[in-house]
Amino acid sequence: MKTDIDIQNHYHFSFDLWLTLIKSHPEFKTKRVELFSSFFNVDAPIAVVAKTVKYYDDLCNTINEVTGGNIDTFEIYLMILGALNVDVKLLNKEKLNEFYVKSEELFLEYKPVVIFENIHDFFDDIKSQGKTINILSNTGFIKGKTMRKFLIHENLDQYIDFHIYSDEINCSKPNPLIFQEVKNNIEDQNLPLNRILHIGDNPVADYKGATDFGFSAHLLKY
């Protein structure tokens, strides 16, 4: 799989995260639904809560891809709670942030699974050639600040020259602005766009977004 990625002809490597490098812990989403239900005193069966959470998670991801914008994590919470007949007017940002902190603790307890095999060796190979790496990830429930904590825990942060998360710059792949942000952060500003390789699993957000901007792209299929 990874041998298909052309290291020799590229000098900077941009990696998507979800379903490219990592996937959710098999128990995490179930635990998060349980937390959602108990924390907000949702009066609905847990199966209904789970279905509603998944619906709005998928919907918001799609909206972000179609519009190139970024729906805030707290906005996603409020959509879900409104659909579950919770009176969202009784909530405030402090309460939503309190939930996020608990959700982050759960996320770091049930950490994602690294699916890109031998990733440390692969990143070592790139860095040993004097080349650079960034993370470029659309976010939804999990903010960029939490992903940084996870990558530090996995000893992957040491390889990454910079991170770009959609919640931090308020735009999402395939918006060309987010790929421009990658270009802006590369130390060698004279590096030709086609020498920058973006690797991801999403044909629209990752592959088409990158190639439309002028980057090279590699579509991963597990």
TrEMBL record:
SUPFAM superfamilies named among the record's database cross-references: HAD-like
Domain of life: Bacteria
Pfam families: Hydrolase (PF00702)
InterPro entries: HAD-like_hydrolase_domain, HAD-like_sf, HAD-SF_hydro_IA, HAD_sf
PANTHER family with a match to the protein in the record: HALOACID DEHALOGENASE-LIKE HYDROLASE DOMAIN-CONTAINING PROTEIN 3, PTHR46191
Name by which UniProt lists this protein: Phosphoglycolate phosphatase
Species of the source: Chryseobacterium pennae
